[in-house]
Specification:
This protein is α+β, with helices and mostly antiparallel strands and 353 residues long. 16% of the residues lie in helices and 38% in strands. The strands form four sheets. Strands 6, 7, 12, 13, 14, 15, 16, 17, 19, 20 and 21 form an eleven-stranded antiparallel β-sheet that branches.
């Protein structure tokens, strides 16, 4: 139940970024979440009907088509301070007890009496990643060179999300470049097997490869956040990828959360003459140092500036599959390494810790 709820929330319109790079507002569109969980929660249709009655006017762009006009709390990062803040000010008892149990595995104070009033005798089973032993799970490779992670059917009851991180590795200079995160994978949830669909390309601004982070996993499109300097100021460039047309578009640039945790409502459009500096994340290959941001390429915006896919430069790359549960826990597979030449993956090697 909780894993399926988490995956539904991840595919619901949400606001403020909700990524580790941008920060978390933990706000989800109430109506879209209700529609995404209609098969899971019997009361979802009543929520949708009530929203239709109380929201009199709304405006949404092409990448907010599912928005219904009201958002509510949902924990995307499992942060206990955020949860405690919600428990203090939130009005809905049902959501308070649901989220407290989802994140902690324990019923909040007063919850047992509330459940007794509803004649609920048993709560759904809650299983988290630390209980699975999947951290460092082995990667396998098919005869066709496709890497895959095999967890088994219980993955459907544990994982709220799955994706991968991509690294460029240079042993000669002892450097490792983190290119970002994506979810371009083929998932068999019934059997818990996840295949990579990597094609040897990555996001690029006017042909310059960038660090990008998946920020929304939709049915028709994905949204990504790309940290940049815009005329010397820190911004996140928001880009979209449409599945049916296989086209990218630049939505604009936003700044991060303010000190109160509120997301910026202003999206700045790029204009001719703007100077965009792309940002990469770099660490040493042999050390334990954290990845640090540094300025990479400068792009002067023109009328033809566009975001798209570009072939990876020649070299060695490493991919790690990243698993996430509803409590905000992460687990990481062993790495799979591959050589890329002229945008083509030429060989694949498994590295085990």
């Amino acid at each position: 139940f909780f894993a399926e709820l988490g995956r539904a929330a991840a595919q619901s319109e949400n606001y403020g970024g909700n990524t580790r790079e941008q920060g978390f507002t933990n706000m989800v569109d109430m109506g879209h979440l209700a529609r995404q969980t209609a098969w899971l929660l019997p009361s979802a249709q009543s929520v949708s009907d009530a929203l239709a009655d109380c929201v009199l006017y709304k405006v949404g762009g092409p990448y907010r088509a599912e928005a219904t006009g009201l958002s509510c709390y949902y924990s995307y990062n499992g942060d206990m301070d955020d949860l405690n803040g919600y428990l203090t000010v939130g009005e809905g008892l049902a959501f308070k007890y649901l989220y407290a149990y989802e994140l902690t595995g324990e019923v909040a104070e007063g919850g047992e009496d509330y459940l007794a009033e509803l004649n609920i005798q048993e709560l759904p089973e809650r299983m988290t990643l630390p209980e699975t032993g999947w951290d460092g799970a082995p990667i396998h490779v098919t005869d066709d060179g496709i890497s895959y992670l095999e967890l088994g059917p219980e993955a459907n009851s544990v994982l709220a999300g799955i994706g991968f991180s991509l690294f460029y590795v240079d042993e000669e200079t002892d450097q490792m470049l983190l290119l970002g995160t994506d979810n371009d994978m083929n998932a068999d949830w019934d059997n818990g097997v996840f295949y990579d669909n990597f094609r040897g390309v990555w996001g690029a601004l006017d042909g310059n490869l960038v660090y990008m982070e998946l920020s929304f996993d939709g049915e028709d499109y994905n949204l990504y956040s790309v940290p940049i300097l815009l005329n010397g100021e820190a911004y996140n460039l928001q880009v979209a990828y449409e599945f049916d047309t296989e086209e990218w578009s630049i939505l604009g640039a936003t700044q991060g959360l303010d000190p109160s945790g509120m997301a910026s409502k202003e999206r700045r459009l790029l204009k001719e003459g703007d100077v965009v500096t792309t940002i990469w994340k770099l660490a040493t290959l042999s050390g334990d140092d954290e990845f640090e941001m540094y300025a990479a390429d400068e792009v002067t915006v023109t009328a033809d500036t566009a975001f798209g896919e570009a072939p990876l430069f020649d070299g060695t790359y490493s991919m790690v599959i990243e698993m996430r549960d509803v409590a905000g826990n992460y687990a990481y597979s062993d790495a799979v390494s591959f050589e890329c030449v002229d945008g083509q993956v030429t060989s694949t090697t498994i590295y085990e810790d």
